[in-house]
Amino acid sequence: MADRPYRFAGRVPQGVSPVVPGPGQESVWDYPRPPRVEPVADRIRVVVGGEAIADTIRASRVLETAGAPVYYLPREDVRMDRLRPSAATTYCEWKGVASYWSYVADRRRIEDVAWSYERPAPGFEAIAGHLAFYAGRVDEAWVGGELVTPQPGGFYGGWMTPRIVGPVKGEPGSRGW
Question: ω before 162 within 30° of 0 (cis)?
């Protein structure tokens, strides 16, 4: 019997050629829309200046079609003494209004390094008050033993690891996905 072609769970726009996931990999084209929240078994760490400013085994991740996973860490596992509220806010059609946080320690400041949903929309209560960090604005971000690279484009806060295959929003040619 011949192998059937891989069928992605999400809607793939015309002209997009998703990578078929191999063993141990996930395709962003199998993630749902609207997004879903799920617990994470991996240890999640965020490092700035050699210091772990967040370290948890109690994170959740939000998965959305065409985007890399976004990790939300409970405040109790974040060095909140290194963060200050920012005046910035954004709106997500699924999660609601996001508040931003800046890193401030010694002589270093990183504007809007993280964000949180204090009162998220229904369905996203699991991430209320948790913080998500931009991997491209910190020195290191880790999922388990894998060093993260930021989702391309700088706008989205997804974390890319070798387990994630795309293409993902933010890459050249992805405008309008």
Answer: no
Q: How many CB atoms neighbour CB 117 within 10 A?
A: 22
Longest dimension (CA), the chain: 64
* CA angle (160, 10, 71) in 5-degree steps: 30
How many C-beta atoms surround the C-beta of residue 134 within 10 A?
23
110 contacts 135 by C-beta, under 8 angstroms: no
Contact 132, 141 (CB under 8 A): no
> Model confidence at 177, in pLDDT bands (50, 70, 90)?
confident
Neighbours of 84 (CB within 10 A): 12
Own/partner pairs, 125-129, CB within 8 angstroms, 24+ separation: 126/37, 126/39, 126/60, 126/72, 127/37, 127/60, 127/62, 127/72, 127/95, 129/74, 129/75
Task: State the SS3 of 123-165.
Answer: CCHHHECCEEECCCCCCEEEECCEECEECCCCCCCCEECCCEE
Q: Per the structure block, which two tokens stand in for 116?
A: 């949180």
Token pair, residue 84, equals: 């200050």
* DSSP H or E stretch at residue 51: strand 51-56
Please report which confidence band the pLDDT of residue 2 belongs to, taking 50, 70 and 90 as the band edges.
low
Q: How far apart are CA 70 and CA 61, in angstroms?
A: 5
pTM comes to: 0.95
